[in-house]
């Protein structure tokens, strides 16, 4: 079965990433076309990139890198739940992505983003990064602006429209993950 990781992309205390990722994962559980797992980068305990060799070599010397590589290699596609920090991507998620190379290749990726502008600028940056990693980013996206999807205390209060858009992201991520399977050496 096609495996998709929903990645909670922030490690900041009092973050919204886990709450939003839980919402994404919960909505994915009704699907029968793929298995969706929640992966929280905060649980990976990855220090600032500390591998001596470039990730493209695949020569990982640290146990935390080998464990991370094994986890990411097991998935066919991803939904990144990403905040927007200072008009771009969160450093913790970028660091986690930068640890690896081949494990990301020929896999699909979709985005659920949040922030003052719905996280749109972070996703634009992620699309460039995904291209370099030979990932297929899907067109559908869920934008969650603070003004409409969060209350005055920044508690997540998703709308029905956001939930509907999420299903389109799932549809496209699964379809592209399956289409790319031959490039990953899977039938």
Automatic annotation (TrEMBL):
Q: Which SUPFAM superfamilies match?
A: Flavoproteins
User: InterPro entries, from UniProt?
Assistant: Flavoprotein-like_sf, FMN_Rdtase-like_dom, NAD(P)H-dep_reductase
| Pfam families from the UniProt entry | FMN_red
NADPH-dependent FMN reductase-like domain mapped to chain residues? 2-146
Sample GO molecular function, one term? FMN binding
Tell me a GO cellular component: cytosol
Q: Which domain of life is it from?
A: Bacteria
Q: What is this protein called?
A: NADPH-dependent FMN reductase
Q: What is the organism field in this record?
A: Kocuria rosea subsp. polaris
User: What are the leading ranks of the lineage?
Assistant: Bacteria, Bacillati, Actinomycetota, Actinomycetes, Micrococcales
């Amino acid at each position: 079965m096609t495996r998709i990781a929903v990645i909670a992309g922030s490690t900041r205390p009092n973050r919204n990433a886990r709450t939003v990722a839980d919402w994404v994962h919960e909505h994915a559980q009704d699907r029968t076309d793929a298995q969706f797992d929640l992966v929280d980068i905060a649980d990976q305990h990855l220090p600032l990139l500390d591998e001596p060799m470039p990730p493209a070599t695949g020569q990982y010397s640290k146990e935390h890198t080998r464990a991370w590589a094994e986890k990411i290699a097991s998935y066919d596609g991803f939904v990144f739940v990403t905040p927007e920090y200072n008009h771009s991507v969160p450093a913790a998620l970028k660091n986690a992505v930068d640890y690896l190379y081949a494990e990301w290749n020929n896999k699909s990726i979709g985005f659920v983003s949040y922030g003052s502008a719905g996280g749109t600028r972070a996703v634009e940056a992620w699309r460039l990064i995904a291209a370099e990693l030979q990932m297929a980013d899907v067109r559908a996206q869920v934008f969650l602006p603070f003004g409409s999807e969060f209350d005055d205390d920044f508690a997540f209060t998703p709308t029905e429209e956001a939930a509907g858009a999420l299903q389109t992201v799932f549809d496209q991520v699964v379809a592209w993950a399956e289409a790319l399977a031959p490039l990953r050496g899977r039938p």
